[in-house]
Amino acid sequence: MADNSNRPDSDKAPRPGLLQALQSTLAALFGIQSDSNRQRDFNRADPGQLIGVFVLVVIALVVGMIVLVNALLDAAPK
């Protein structure tokens, strides 16, 4: 059996939930992620969940920007 004595207690601590993944993704995306939250994410968070949330947030930002630009172009005098 493998000796797990060198591993941090990340298995005992609960994994961050979906809301924490969203908050962490937004903070990292805008460059305001704290070091303690970044360490928490690297040690305990599910990478698949963080990647999935990141992809959804980026898609939402791109769609939002497209809608905003189209609305501004429609409102511009012709």
Characterise this structure.
This protein is mainly α. The chain has one domain (16-75). The protein is 67% helix and 0% strand. The protein has helices spanning 18-30, 35-44, 47-75. The longest helix is centred in the last third of the chain and has 29 residues, at 47-75. InterPro entries: DUF2970. The chain crosses the membrane at residues 50-73.
Main attributes?
mainly alpha, DUF2970 domain-containing protein, transmembrane
Outline the fold blueprint.
Layout lengths: L17 H13 L4 H10 L2 H29 L3
Compute the average pLDDT: 85
What proportion strand?
under 5%
Order of helices and strands: HHH
Helix content: 55-70%
The number of distinct β-strands equals 0
Say what oligomer this is.
single chain
Q: Structural class, please? A: mainly alpha
Distance between the termini: 74 Å
| Contiguous uncertain segments of 5+ residues | none
Radius of gyration: 19 Å
Counted up, domains total 1
What is the number of helical segments per DSSP (H or I, 4+ residues)?
Answer: 3
| Shape designation | elongated
Largest sheet: none
